[in-house]
Amino acid sequence: MGFLDRCADICNFSHGHSHDSKKLKKNQQLQRVEIKVKMDCEGCEKKVKKSVEGMKGVTEVEVDPKRSKLTVVGYVDPNKVLHRVRHRTGKTAELWPYVPYDVVEHPYAPGAYDKKAPPGYVRNVAANPDVAPLARAGSFEVKYTTAFSDENPNACSLM
User: Fold this and answer.
1) Backbone phi and psi for residue 71, each to the nearest 5 degrees, phi listed first
2) CA distance 29 to 74
3) What is the distance between the alpha carbons of residues 75 and 30, in angstroms, rounded to a whole number?
4) 95-119 burial, b for 16+ CB within 10 Å, e for fewer?
5) Which neighbouring-strand residues pair with 121?
6) 86 pLDDT exceeds 70?
7) Residue 14 has pLDDT above 70, yes or no
8) Nearest CA-CA partner of 104 in 120, 124, 119, 118
9) Whether the predicted pLDDT of 73 surpasses 90
10) Which of 27, 93, 100, 159 has its CA 20 to 30 A from that of 71?
C-alpha cells in the first residue's frame, strides 16, 4: 500500500473498509450464479430480486419469471446466494439444473429429458451420478438398446 492510498484511506474516513472490498474481489472470481426459483406474480419477482440485491459482492441481478430463473453476477459464493434466496423468500430454490440441448450426447435418455425444462434445455445429467451412465452411453450401448426398441422400424421383434 503506497503513500497516496494511505492518505486516501485517512481522508475517506472509511478506516480501511475500501481496502477490504479490494481483497474480496481479489480472493473470489467473478461468477455467474443461476438459480431456479418459482415465481408466480410480480410480487414474487420483486421479493426474489430484492433478496440478493443487497448482498456483498453482487454486481448484477436478472430475474426471468417465465423460466423461473434468477441470475446473479458478482464476486459471490453460489451456495451462499442459494441459501440467502431460500432464507429471505421462503421459497424452494435450487442451482439451475438445466444445460443447453446440444451439450448432452443423449438428451432423451432417462433422467436427462425433463418436461418442465425450458425449450432447448435438458437436465444436467453430469451432476447426477445415478443418471449419468445412461445419458453418456456410447455407440456400443446405444446399438444394442435400440435393437429392441419399439421406435426403431428395423428393430428385432419377438413376435
Assistant:
1) -120, 125
2) 8
3) 5
4) ebbbbeeeebebbebeebbeeebee
5) 100
6) yes
7) no
8) 124
9) yes
10) 27
- What residues contact 111, with CB distance under 8 A and at least 6 apart? 123, 125, 128, 130, 131, 134, 135
Report if pTM > 0.90: no
Q: Which three cell numbers stand for residue 150?
A: 419399439
- The DSSP bridge pattern shows strands 121-123 and 58-64 to be unpaired
How far, in Å, are 13, 25, 37, 141 from residue 4 at the CA level? 14, 21, 46, 67
Of 99, 118, 95, 96, the residue nearest 107 (C-alpha): 99
119 or 126, higher pLDDT:
119
**Residue 39 one-letter amino acid:** M
> What's the one-letter identity of residue 97?
P
The DSSP call for residue 104 is S
pLDDT at 29 over 70: yes
